[in-house]
Amino acid sequence: MGRSLCCQDSVDSTNNLAKQLAKQNAPHGLLIISEEQTGGKGRIGRGWASPKSKGLWLSVLLRPNLLPQDAPKSTLLAAVAVCQAVNTVAGVQAKIKWPNDILLNGKKLVGILSEMGAEYGKLNYVVIGIGLNTNAERQDFPTDVQDIAISLHQAATKEFSRDEVLAEILWQMEKLVEEAETKGFASILEQWRKMNCTTGNKVKVIAQDETYLGKALDIDETGMLIVERENGVIDKVVAGDVSIRYANDSN
Ligand code: BTN
Fold it and tell me: Is 133 touching ligand 1 by the criterion CB < 6 Å?
């Protein structure tokens, strides 16, 4: 991971550039990183504030040997890699909130946006976009997220070397990709389960056509969240469609 490298001072979105390069045959493991993004993208059509030099705004291009329907496995793997990397470098106890937010002290430290290029039955590439708030202060975040976002600097009150955090993320990703190829994906799922803070909790599922309360039980082998509704019906929730809140959260 990162053995091919594209460093930018400013781009609209590292994911957009990664997809463009993917279509021009860029290799598996290509890293695209930018000091700032002018049109950073978040999940479900949201934006992602990416102020200059205050965080790691990057995309990794993967060409996994998976079917299109199994592409979410790459996102779970990335979440495990990033969470592990942050905890190792910063000595903190960050957790994964399904599907792929990394929370520290209950606030959002990292967002991951995966996009894929596929044809019927064939996955061409997956772009894993990672936004990690390393050295941002409260005023660097948009006002609407100032109370729910956090940076490593805010949590540990010291500056973090973005190079060191980045190197650890790439190392962890490389290790987990190899592990998934040799041992199968079950071992990645096991690590995800240990690092997550969603299963076992009451959640509010906000889908396009309905919002409901339930209990998050587990994830299945493709990464779908298994939720027991209050009426006892068991649902499987797909990451692309919904937003999850903890049931007692006001936001
Ligand atoms: C989310 O939590 O909504 C996902 C945020 C993902 C942000 C990253 S920053 C690098 C990459 N490029 C983008 O435009 N988005 C992702």
Answer: no
Position 223 scores a pLDDT of 87
Q: How far is the CA of 15 from the centre of ligand 1 (A)?
A: 8
Query: Using 50, 70 and 90 to split pLDDT, how confident is the model at 249?
Result: low
DSSP tag of 43: G
Tokens of 49: 């504030």
Residue 238 has what pLDDT?
86
- Measured CA to CA, the distance from residue 84 to residue 22 in angstroms comes to 27
pLDDT of res. 251: 44
In short, whether 111's Cβ falls inside 6 Å of ligand 1 is yes
Question: What is the whole-number distance in angstroms between the Cα of residue 10 and the centre of ligand 1?
Answer: 15
Cα–Cα distance, 71 to 89 (Å, whole number): 28
Q: Residue 116: which region, alpha, beta or left (left: phi > 0; alpha: psi -120 to 50)?
A: beta
Closest residue by Cα to residue 160 from 220, 110, 230, 96: 110
**pTM of the full predicted structure?**
0.94
Helices (H) and strands (E) in the chain, counts: 5, 12
Tell me how far the alpha carbon of residue 107 lies from the centroid of ligand 1, in angstroms. 16
Contacts of 3 (CB under 8 A, 6+ apart): 29
63-73 per-position pLDDT tens digit: 999 999 999 89
> What Å distances lie between residue 36 and 33, 49, 53, 110, 154, CA to CA?
9, 9, 7, 16, 20
Q: Is the Cβ–Cβ distance between 216 and 227 less than 8 Å?
A: yes
- Interval 71-104: pLDDT, tens: 989 999 999 999 999 999 999 999 999 988 999 9
